[in-house]
Amino acid sequence: MTMVRITPPSLSNLLNFGAMLLLCLTLGACGWFGDKDRDEFSDLTTEEQFYRRALDQLNGQNFRGAISTYQALESRFPFGRFAAQAQIEIVYAYYRNSDMEAARAAADRFIRLHPENENVDYAYYLKGLSSFTDDKGIINRFLPVDPTKRDPGRAQESFNDFAQLLALYPDSIYAADARARMIFLRNNLAAYEIHVANYYLERRAYIAALRRGQYVVENFQGTPAVADGVAIMVECYMRLGLNDMADTSLALLRENYPDHNSLAEDGSFIIRSEITNPSLLYTVSFGLLGDNVVDPPLAPTTRPGVSGSDQIINSQTEPERQRRSLFSIITFGIFD
Length: 336
Known about the structure:
Helix content: 55-70%
Oligomer: single chain
Number of helices: 14
Structural class: mainly alpha
Strand order of the largest sheet: 1-2
Distance between the termini: 137 Å
Mean pLDDT: 79
Shape: elongated
């Protein structure tokens, strides 16, 4: 009887077998994905067929499918006659798919690649519209959120994009809508500055609040927030004891905004009496205990005629010099 002796595989044979197995799995996976891609677009052979399908998906509100088809079209026909049109339409597909970052990136790409295209104004418009819509956020769909109290970053970007559209293409069919949105955004940006000024004012940071009020008056003329900016300036000047400047700002408020809610019937200024100043007990108890308001005193009604350091210097008197005796001089002051 012949004995068959089984030789265990060597380490090199095991490594070769593992490499072959890994290669087979890799090729199989590539083939699976390739078959899947071929199945999805297996019936499309020409550039026009890709474009027609993407357009049908876009009109049917299948925006995710349209994005995939536009991407496939560009990868297969990067210099075809539908390439530029596909690149501008995919911006709209991204926008309708609520992918605002991708929409802005696609719009920037189209502007960079096709600066002379007849649809470049539409790319600028969609870029601004993406920032405008992204500024609202998904929370606003379900909760009433004041847009003037949110971070103004997206609103500022949208305003700049629309401004660029109007500067480059003032006769565009999208110019009127862009201009209307810019007015809305400018009002919101001004109102945001007022909210920040009130925040500083409530915390008795009068210089910071004054700067915000001045910024609104200087940079947002024509917005409803200018009246609030002047009122904040009046109160800050009164808090700081700058009475002449407070009177000037108050006269400006009376002249231009006589119906502002900070003015009494006789024209006097109604200064707020409660400033947010949470106590430690109020903070640690999450508002259940303690107090959250305080009535801060106003600055002096009249300013001193000289500065504080001058007052200190003038209040000091020069000490009288005493004559020393000869004995004190001889003993170096030890004996007077």
